[in-house]
Amino acid sequence: MRLLVLLSRVPFPLEKGDKLRAYHLVTRLAKRHEVYLFCLSDARVDPAHIEHLQQVCAHIEVVRIGRWRILLKLLTAVFTRLPFQVAYFHHGHAQRRIDRAIERFRPDHVICQLVRTTEYVRERYALPKTLDYMDTLSKGMERRTETAPLHLRPIFRAETRRLIRYENLMFDQFDHAVIISAQDRDYIYHPFRDRMAVVPNGVDTKLFTPQEVEQQYDLLFTGNMNYPPNIDSVLYLVQKVLPIVRKQRPATSLLISGVDPTASVRDLAKTDPLISVTGWVRDIRSSYATSRIFVAPMQIGTGLQNKLLEAMAMRIPCITSALANNAVGAPAGDAILIGETPEDYAALILRLLADPGERKRIAANGYDFVRANFDWDRSAEALERLIARTGTA
């Protein structure tokens, strides 16, 4: 089958969740199908990253979207009902490139990742189409509204309403809808949301494996550190949880590892010598391996936290929120520990730091759970079976 895959980012390197999901699904689909990977990009792309993807896909095309185009489109979107996240990525010159690609390639099926890309194909073509919502953008925006500065809340509320409407509209205009977890499926407002296929992320258990190295840090948080839910989580950890922990263990250290840390995150290391902020690292496994406990007190956001899957696959004990674990589904108290208040998180951290045997127990159970339940091959096969239902064009 000839598959056109439309993405809002180039899916390599793997420093963001949407890239990770796209990369692993596309590489597996490309083993059995002819894949035309069409990517949008709002930044310059390293030619080495394109060369890597060319080894995976039969065809790849990247369309650069200039900042001035984005600004102009966002200004005009004020007078439409289009979500700003969709307007950000939808541009006439990119539409013409996609039209030419479809004319040349004549795909049997189109896969769009995120509603950000759907404007390009939703009404123009009678091709069979699958939309991977990934997670529920409207719910994520709704949660961000609660903690946003007062002057931004009206904008966030308007974007939430636009996204709800648009997510429902896309549900009716695509043959299949895919989402990352049952929790995110239930956040979709469409009356037939139960028809959505849940296709979870996997974890590369050949790459993320336990390592016997010296553990230099007590606590670890990883992720894209310009992503608001991650910023909110790490500030919560440092400002509300860590002071309680340090009343009993003053020397407790924290490693914050991930791409593009904002100034508010970088400043944490400037004022506290026991906090390290690495920014992008070539091999994130080194951050996991050198830390005793992974802590992700996620308060907002949606989707499936890949960071938890990776930490568990490396046999690191994890502490997180019920919000994050609802998507993962790990047995609380056995494979993962769940906090609710700063006092809860602090007590769990202190318990694990004081008890190596308990750390080992939680880590071993988490390791077994993630290897049994999260596999990229199974996820790609589920997506492939769904696509096959519509046959060819």
What fold name stands as the CATH topology of the largest domain?
Rossmann fold
- Looking at the overall shape, the CATH architecture of the largest domain is 3-Layer(aba) Sandwich
Listing every helix as H and every strand as E from the N terminus to the C terminus, the arrangement reads EHEHEHHHEEHHEHEEHEHEHEHEHEHHH
Strand coverage percent: 15-25%
**CATH class label of the largest domain:** Alpha Beta
Global shape: globular
Q: Biggest sheet, in brief?
A: 7 strands, parallel
Quick take:
The protein has 393 residues and is α/β, with parallel strands linked by helices.
What does this structure look like?
- The chain is 47% helix and 16% strand.
- The protein starts with a strand and ends in a 5-residue tail after the last helix.
- It has helices spanning 17-29, 47-54, 67-77, 84-89, 92-105, 137-147, 153-173, 182-187, 228-248, 263-271, 285-289, 306-313, 322-328, 342-354, 356-373, 376-388; strands spanning 2-7, 34-41, 59-64, 109-113, 129-134, 176-179, 197-198, 217-222, 254-257, 275-277, 291-296, 318-321, 337-339.
- The protein has 16 helices and 13 strands.
- The longest helix is centred in the middle third of the chain and has 21 residues, at 153-173.
- Helix 1 (17-29) packs across helix 16 (376-388).
- It has a seven-stranded parallel beta sheet, sandwiched between helices. Strands 10-9-8-11-12-13 form a six-stranded parallel beta sheet, sandwiched between helices.
- It folds into two domains: 2-202 and 376-388, Rossmann fold; 217-373, 3-Layer(aba) Sandwich (Rossmann fold).
- It has 393 residues and is of the alpha/beta class.
